[in-house]
Amino acid sequence: MVDRAAAGDEAVTGRGTGGADTPGIEVLTRAHAYLREVVAAVGDEQWGAATPCDAWTVRQVFHHARIDQQGYGLALTGGRPGSDPFHPADALDGDPSAELAEVLDAVAEAYAGLPADTGQVPTPLGPLPLPLAIGAAAMDAAVHAWDIAVATGQDRPLPAEAAEGIGPAAEHLVDRLRDSFKVFAPARETPDAHDRSATLLAFLGRDPHWSPPVS
Q1: Helix 96-112 and helix 58-75: axis angle, to 10°?
Q2: Pairing of strands 128-129, 120-121
Q3: Per-residue b/e over 126-152, b at no fewer than 16 CB within 10 Å?
Q4: Of 66, 78, 120, 195, which has the maximum CB count within 10 A?
Q5: pLDDT band at 96 (very low <50, low <70, confident <90, very high)
């Protein structure tokens, strides 16, 4: 989840050629794959369902996640999304999976194209070292994929490998974002210290055992 502080016009620092050797890029591609899979499985009648994000429907969480990812990609060139991720639309226009794929492909390509020795990069959270920037984008994608999955009754838990890769960024960034911008709920008690995914979700203020309200 991004905060309202803009990345500004900071330049990407580093030299060399980018590509598959961009440090940590697999963390982002895993998170993106999880988000794509979950969104593709949402039924037409499920987009209005309640989610772990208070007062937001599945549609709104989808748009929030999509705009957040767009923000990470555009920040690399000094741009911003055209809409506010904190006021996502509660409507769909077109094919959600195709709309999402266009954004995720662009973000992954932008990060994969950075030089392997890149230092600080601009992000919606301000300038961050490249591995933390990738981890922050991945964290946002993965946690909102989980929000949508549990809201729509999918048996698609947050993959442990994704949670492991996101961990360093969460530990470095979340408390500051929680305290300064209130974009995360208070951390919850960890239900099982050996369950990396549940531990991460609880740290991010989610109930790992959340289920849709009974109507």
Answers
A1: 30
A2: antiparallel
A3: bbbbbbbbbbbbbbbbbbbbbbbbbbb
A4: 66
A5: very high
Matching residue, tokens 């369902």: 49
CA distance 196 to 159: 9
* pTM for this prediction: 0.89
35-72 b/e with 16+ CB inside 10 Å = b? bbebbebbeeebbebebbbeebbbbbbbbbbbbbbbbb
CA proximity to 96, closest of 151, 54, 145, 142? 145
Query: Phi/psi zone of residue 112: left (φ > 0), alpha (ψ -120 to 50 degrees), beta?
Result: alpha
- Which residue type occupies 206? R
Residue type, 108: A
User: pLDDT (tens digit, 9 = 90+) per residue, 108-121?
Assistant: 999 999 998 999 99
**Cβ pair 10, 77 in contact under 8 A:** no
Q: Output the CA–CA distances (angstroms, integers) from residue 95 to 44, 86, 102, 115, 141, in the order listed.
A: 11, 22, 11, 33, 18
